[in-house]
């Protein structure tokens, strides 16, 4: 915002409910009087002419009724207005009005009466030209003068109209002289005439400023430069149909020069920087202003820090009379209007003044009114017309007053700040704070499990012969509040392959009598992927009526296994033994599996020792066996991913009954896990290759289409050269690739779910085998993330590889060096450039070091130790676990000797090592041997 406001001299509201844009305002004189008239035309087709006047009397409207000289409805939307000598038999100015499909020139007639109020102003049609194309803008100039002007018509001006499809119509008064279509013009741009070089400058569709010589356009045009279309159309009231000449053949024309603007142009105007020099072209862009010579050379460019709306280039009368050596009077002077209600008065690339206005101007004109030169006339989009001048009136929006100044003691202020920080820290560490917040909660989410299952066939299973229907569970939700709330929105989120319908419920206003909002949400399994998470998250967002602040609350609910799995109606002995087997030992006697999984128990074979089940849409069975003698639970299946959910549910349900401890003494099933990683990586590579091939075929298809289109446009029939056959084959290839890509994406999504389940199972078994703490388990789940998204450029392999490598180089490092080196940049690389063997090797090393007693968090001594300012690093010993490592033939465990010293950690504290991963901008490659040594 500017410090000063533009001083209003005269203003009025033009019409009511009318719209205006750039080109709807023009100022000029129609008599020998030097005072200008203001001509305004609206998109509703109403033309108004004003003669602004001001008096010393205090007027609320700041205008008089006599200021409006003429108001006439022309019946068509007005696109642009120009004032000039457009009639060869008259020496005064006329008004040229561009309509949507017509150009009309009107005479300004003024008859003086006996009194001031007796003046009669009217406009009379002189001639018009009908156009068969929708118009966009126009410009005026002495076209064809060769840059020197014509002695016979030195005071006359011609009109060039540009249509929406880039066709130029040039009219020499009552006759049409040229019709030319500019090359490669799909969207029209601003246009202007260069009088010294007799050329037309415009901005093309590719954001290039192009200059065309008028003689070049006239020669290549289909209409002769010196012929008249209709000799009888010279006088008033006769129309000339421009459509007769559009079909004439024309030649290709090239611009004299072109300048790349790189952005859309809002306006273009011409001026002279100095006397007796060439013209200067000024182009206003969306972010920059360009100033060029008439030969296309750039003079300067000004970059904006604001959003411009319009501009005007004005000439200073003193500029042509002063010495050219004075730099203050040399240059381009212009005014820019912005969307922040500001007028910037600039000279070349320097802003000389800034003034605030009350609206966003769509057009600016500089005029002389009542012998006041340099009056700024602005027009808004809604029709607010204002004549103002620069001054030092302050902006009405004042800065808030500051409290009476008092002497502030810096020491007392620091003590108060330290005291407040201490109180905030104590309040945040108060364990009763959460209880207080819950007690003051306004909204409570209640979930009622109806346990009334129904069936649905709304599934997307690849094999419909396995399960045609799946169970559907409706849940009744109630949102309670102790005071009125509004804008209540309930959203439901479940993990694939589960589906919730509806997943978004707008409850609106809750309060008063109806203080409870109710809704019913149905859950079922839609896709035949392996489920890895049964939690449903309910989120309620609302606004309070008291202070209209937004609040959100969440609640999670564990969906039953019955939604995704069903019991197998055969005894466990009849089920096929799975290749993957997981055995967990317990310190308490085994529990009847039918009581642990009542929703999966079979009525016919109600046995304690075994249970067989499978997921809906899958043909892989999962057997759960219990041994009373050895107190062990065994899970076996053909897929490692199918075991995760049942293993996790068994541990979770048995842990809620009593305190129980599990142990896992077998080797980790890393071979099966690595097979899933390989398969997931291969599917990613295949999808990327199919996508690249599809892109190549699409480009080939478009190229063939263009070739065929050119052959069809050719007036001389030619052979197709088997392009139609090639087009059909390319189309079939694209369809086949699209089908293959869709199938590959389905397989990739299914493999991603399997990999998520296997990752969760590996983390669970690793936690049980080495008795990891909760903090170590959280960090392990952060490193081996089970959340897999295949829609991003950075896949799961890149993320896990970076996290595992960082862990091996820091908290699990075996070297004494504190320099962790440079990590690989895994973001933005192609999928084919990933070394999947290195990833598997690092995962195996990570498991080995955790089994040997490694920890992912620092010890207490490291956390409590403060870093010395004199030292760059603070090292500490890696905490060694007292648990017995797992005896496994899969790994080559080393004996605990002097070679396995405690690792040293750079910078001491790695408590949040995996919450804030290092910058991925490091691009230095690391040696393969370093992975072995770490």
What does this entry look like structurally?
The chain has 12 helices and 44 strands. By secondary structure, the chain is an alpha+beta fold. It folds into 4 domains: about 5-395, Methylamine Dehydrogenase, Chain H; about 440-560, Gamma-adaptin ear (GAE) domain (Immunoglobulin-like); about 565-665, TATA-Binding Protein (2-Layer Sandwich); about 680-695 and about 730-934, no CATH class. The protein is elongated, with a radius of gyration of 41 Å.
Name its key features.
TATA-Binding Protein, 934 residues, 12 helices, alpha+beta, eight-stranded mixed beta sheet, Immunoglobulin-like, six-stranded antiparallel beta sheet
Number of continuous helical runs: 12
Helix-strand makeup class:
alpha+beta
Specify the overall morphology.
elongated
Trace the largest sheet across and list its strands: 23-24-25-26-1-29-28-27
Task: Tell me, rounded to a whole number, the average pLDDT.
Answer: 79
Low-pLDDT windows of residues: 223-249, 318-324, 398-402, 434-441, 860-934
CATH architecture of the largest domain: 7 Propeller
Topology:
Elements: E1 4-13, E2 25-28, E3 37-41, E4 46-50, E5 68-73, E6 78-84, E7 94-99, E8 102-111, E9 120-130, E10 135-141, E11 158-163, E12 167-172, E13 175-181, E14 191-194, E15 199-203, E16 208-213, H1 214-220, E17 239-241, E18 257-260, E19 265-271, E20 280-285, E21 288-293, E22 298-303, E23 308-314, E24 333-338, E25 342-347, E26 350-356, E27 361-369, E28 372-380, E29 384-394, H2 410-428, H3 432-439, E30 443-449, E31 454-456, E32 470-481, E33 485-494, E34 498-501, E35 504-510, E36 516-525, E37 535-544, E38 550-558, E39 565-567, E40 580-586, H4 593-596, E41 610-615, E42 621-627, E43 632-637, H5 641-657, E44 662-663, H6 670-713, H7 723-770, H8 774-783, H9 796-809, H10 836-851, H11 860-864, H12 928-933
């Amino acid at each position: 915002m500017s410090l000063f406001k533009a001083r209003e001299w005269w203003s009025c509201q033009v019409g009511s409910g009318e719209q205006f844009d750039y080109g709807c305002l023009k100022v000029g004189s129609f008599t020998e009087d030097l005072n200008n008239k203001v001509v305004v035309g609206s998109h509703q087709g109403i033309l108004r002419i004003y003669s602004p006047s001001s008096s010393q009397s205090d007027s609320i409207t700041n205008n008089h009724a006599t200021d409006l000289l003429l108001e006439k409805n022309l019946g068509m939307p007005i696109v642009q207005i120009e004032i000039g000598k457009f009639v060869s038999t008259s020496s005064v100015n006329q008004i040229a009005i561009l309509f949507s499909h017509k150009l009309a020139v009107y005479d300004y007639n003024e008859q003086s009466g006996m009194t001031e109020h007796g003046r009669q102003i009217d406009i009379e049609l002189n001639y018009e030209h009908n156009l068969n194309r929708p118009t966009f803008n126009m410009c005026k100039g002495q076209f064809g003068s060769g840059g020197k002007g014509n002695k016979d018509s030195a005071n006359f001006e011609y009109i060039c109209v540009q249509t929406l499809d880039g066709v130029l119509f040039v009219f020499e008064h009552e006759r049409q002289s040229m019709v030319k279509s500019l090359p490669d013009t799909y969207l029209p741009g601003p246009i202007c005439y260069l009088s010294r070089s007799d050329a037309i400058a415009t901005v093309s569709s590719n954001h290039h400023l192009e200059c065309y010589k008028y003689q070049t356009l006239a020669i290549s045009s289909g209409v002769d430069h010196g012929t008249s279309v209709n000799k009888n159309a010279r006088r008033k009231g006769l129309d000339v149909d421009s459509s007769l000449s559009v079909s004439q053949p024309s030649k290709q024309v090239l611009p004299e020069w072109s300048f790349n603007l790189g952005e859309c142009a809002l306006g273009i105007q011409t001026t002279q920087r100095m006397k007796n020099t060439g013209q200067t072209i000024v182009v206003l862009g969306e972010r920059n202003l360009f100033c060029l010579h008439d030969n296309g050379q750039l003079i300067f460019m000004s970059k904006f820090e604001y959003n411009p709306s319009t501009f005007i280039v004005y000439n200073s009368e003193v500029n042509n009379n002063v010495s050219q050596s004075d730099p203050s009077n040399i240059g381009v002077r212009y005014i820019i209007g912005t969307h922040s209600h500001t007028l910037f008065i600039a000279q070349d690339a320097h802003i000389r003044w800034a003034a605030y206005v009350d609206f966003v101007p769509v057009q600016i004109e500089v005029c002389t009114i009542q012998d006041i030169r340099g009056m700024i006339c602005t027009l808004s989009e809604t029709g607010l017309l204002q004549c103002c001048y620069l001054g030092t009136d302050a902006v009405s929006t004042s800065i808030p007053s500051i409290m009476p100044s008092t002497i502030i003691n810096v020491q007392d202020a620091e003590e108060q700040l330290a005291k407040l920080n201490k109180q905030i820290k104590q309040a945040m560490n108060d364990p009763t704070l959460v209880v207080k917040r819950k007690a003051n909660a306004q909204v409570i989410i209640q979930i009622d499990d109806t346990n009334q299952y129904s069936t649905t066939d709304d599934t997307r299973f690849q094999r419909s012969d396995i399960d045609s229907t799946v169970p559907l569970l409706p849940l009744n939700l109630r949102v309670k509040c102790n005071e009125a709330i509004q804008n209540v929105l309930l959203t439901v989120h479940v993990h694939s392959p589960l589906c919730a319908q509806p997943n978004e419920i707008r409850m609106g206003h809750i309060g008063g009598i109806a203080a409870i909002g109710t809704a019913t949400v149905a859950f079922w399994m839609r896709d035949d992927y392996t489920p890895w998470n049964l939690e449903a998250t309910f989120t309620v967002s609302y606004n309070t009526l008291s202070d209209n602040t937004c609040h959100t609350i969440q609640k999670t609910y564990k969906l039953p296994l019955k939604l995704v799995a069903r019991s197998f109606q055969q005894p466990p002995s009849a089920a096929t033994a799975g290749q993957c087997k997981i055995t967990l030992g317990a310190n308490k006697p085994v529990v009847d599996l039918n009581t642990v999984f009542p929703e999966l128990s079979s009525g016919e074979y109600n046995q304690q020792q075994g249970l067989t089940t499978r997921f809906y849409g899958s043909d892989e069975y999962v057997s759960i066996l219990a041994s009373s003698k050895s107190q062990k639970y065994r899970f076996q299946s053909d897929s490692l991913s199918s075991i995760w959910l049942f293993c996790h549910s068994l541990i979770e349900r048995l842990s809620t009954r009593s305190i129980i401890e599990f142990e896992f003494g077998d080797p980790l099933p890393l071979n099966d896990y690595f097979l899933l990683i390989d398969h997931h990586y291969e599917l990613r590579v295949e999808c990327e290759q199919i996508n690249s091939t599809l892109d190549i075929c699409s480009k080939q298809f478009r190229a063939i289409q263009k070739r065929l289109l050119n052959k069809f446009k050719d007036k001389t029939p030619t052979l197709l050269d088997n392009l139609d056959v090639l087009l059909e084959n390319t189309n079939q290839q694209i369809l086949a690739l699209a089908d293959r890509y869709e199938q590959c994406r389905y397989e990739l999504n299914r493999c991603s779910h399997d990999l998520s389940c296997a990752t969760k199972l590996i983390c669970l078994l690793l936690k049980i085998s080495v008795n990891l703490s909760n903090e170590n388990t959280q960090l392990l789940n952060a490193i081996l993330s089970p959340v897999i998204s295949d829609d991003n450029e950075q896949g799961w392999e890149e993320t896990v590889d970076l996290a595992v490598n960082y862990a091996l180089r820091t908290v699990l490092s075996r070297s004494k060096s504190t320099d962790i080196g440079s990590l690989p940049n895994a973001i933005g690389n192609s999928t084919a450039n990933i070394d999947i063997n290195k990833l598997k090797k690092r995962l195996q090393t990570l498991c080995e070091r955790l089994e040997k007693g490694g920890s992912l968090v620092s010890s207490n001594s490291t956390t409590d130790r403060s870093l010395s300012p004199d030292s760059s690093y603070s090292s500490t010993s890696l905490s060694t676990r007292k648990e017995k490592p797992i005896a496994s033939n899969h790994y080559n465990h080393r004996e605990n000797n002097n070679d396995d010293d405690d690792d040293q950690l750079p910078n001491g504290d790695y408590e949040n090592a995996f919450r804030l991963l290092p910058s991925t901008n490091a691009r230095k490659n690391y040696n393969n041997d370093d992975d072995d040594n770490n």
